[in-house]
């Protein structure tokens, strides 16, 4: 089979990325070349975007989308200074022996992004590989992109983000010790420790799922600073596994999937109205997650 290389960052492995891999599969056996860390972290560290998924999960989702292999290129200063021709000769030919290359129409490569899809198409025959350029997919009049999905998540538009991802957006991290306030009021939550690059949805209450190990429970999820209670605290991401009692999840990896946004974070006048609202939230989350 033909050696096909699909190139991109592929953060999130969204619908547009899946289209690139599907196109590549039509040509032969697909190796995905992806980059870590994000190239922006080398060019302009202050503008480094948050991640939709970690690199381990990116590899897994790329394989699920149809890649036979995934090669993660360490994007560092030296790599960023390869000329377009060096990139073609050293990487596409020298490292991958590419016979066909598939890229999105917005993919540029080489020093200062001087290599364009047009250039790759022109020189491909000289090096013995064909090129497919995949038109960016649109949804509701706008391009599907990792940046657009990040913005939807940050704005709390989780259902729209999920449509473009073709799956539920999720956060992963160790279950850490919080203030244990949920436990005291009858709603013990799993607090998730996150990396600085995590893309965190807007403050509010969501319906979704909490997974730890082999278990996956419907959950009511809260993001915010718990403004009803006194004191100053950072933003917390915590999930209450609906109708579960006595779970001990500390120090295990937790995965919180976001299905639906229920409401904004509110400051209540005391515990009674908070508990009343929490019961409504849980009832709504139970109903939505059982669909």
UniProtKB/TrEMBL annotation:
Pathway: Cofactor biosynthesis; FMN biosynthesis; FMN from riboflavin (ATP route): step 1/1; Cofactor biosynthesis; FAD biosynthesis; FAD from FMN: step 1/1. It holds the Pfam family Flavokinase. The keyword Metal-binding does not apply. Keywords: ATP-binding, FAD, Flavoprotein, FMN, Kinase, Multifunctional enzyme, Nucleotide-binding, Nucleotidyltransferase, Transferase. One of its GO terms (biological process) is FAD biosynthetic process. Residues 164-290 form the Riboflavin kinase domain. One of its GO terms (molecular function) is ATP binding. Its EC number is 2.7.1.26, 2.7.7.2. Belongs to the RibF family. NCBIfam families: cyt_tran_rel (TIGR00125), PRK05627.1-3 (NF004160), ribF (TIGR00083). This is Bifunctional riboflavin kinase/FMN adenylyltransferase. It comes from freshwater metagenome.
């Amino acid at each position: 089979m033909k050696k096909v290389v699909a190139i991109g960052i592929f953060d999130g492995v969204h619908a547009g990325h899946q289209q690139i891999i599907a196109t590549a599969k039509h040509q032969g056996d697909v190796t995905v070349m992806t980059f870590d860390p994000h190239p922006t972290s080398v060019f302009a560290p202050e503008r480094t975007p948050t991640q939709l998924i970690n690199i381990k999960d990116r590899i897994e989702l790329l394989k699920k989308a149809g890649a036979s292999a995934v090669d993660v290129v360490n994007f560092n200063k030296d790599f960023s200074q390869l000329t377009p021709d060096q990139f073609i000769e050293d990487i596409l030919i020298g490292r991958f022996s590419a016979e066909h290359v598939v890229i999105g129409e917005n993919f540029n490569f080489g020093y200062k992004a001087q290599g364009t899809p047009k250039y790759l198409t022109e020189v491909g025959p000289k090096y013995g590989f064909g090129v497919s350029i995949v038109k960016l997919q649109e949804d509701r009049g706008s391009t599907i992109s990792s940046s657009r999905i990040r913005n939807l998540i940050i704005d709390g538009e989780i259902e729209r983000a999920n449509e473009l991802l073709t799956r539920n957006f999720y956060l992963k991290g160790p279950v850490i010790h919080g203030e244990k306030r949920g436990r005291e009021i009858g709603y013990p939550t799993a607090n998730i420790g996150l990396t600085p690059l995590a893309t965190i949805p807007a403050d509010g209450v969501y319906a979704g799922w909490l997974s730890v190990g082999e278990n996956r429970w419907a959950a009511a999820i809260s993001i915010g600073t718990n403004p009803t209670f006194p004191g100053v605290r950072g933003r917390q991401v915590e999930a209450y596994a609906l109708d579960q009692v006595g779970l001990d999840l500390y120090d295990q990896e937790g995965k919180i999937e976001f299905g639906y946004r229920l409401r904004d974070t509110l400051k209540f006048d005391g515990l009674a109205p908070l508990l009343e609202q929490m019961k409504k939230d849980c009832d709504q989350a139970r109903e939505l997650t059982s669909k």
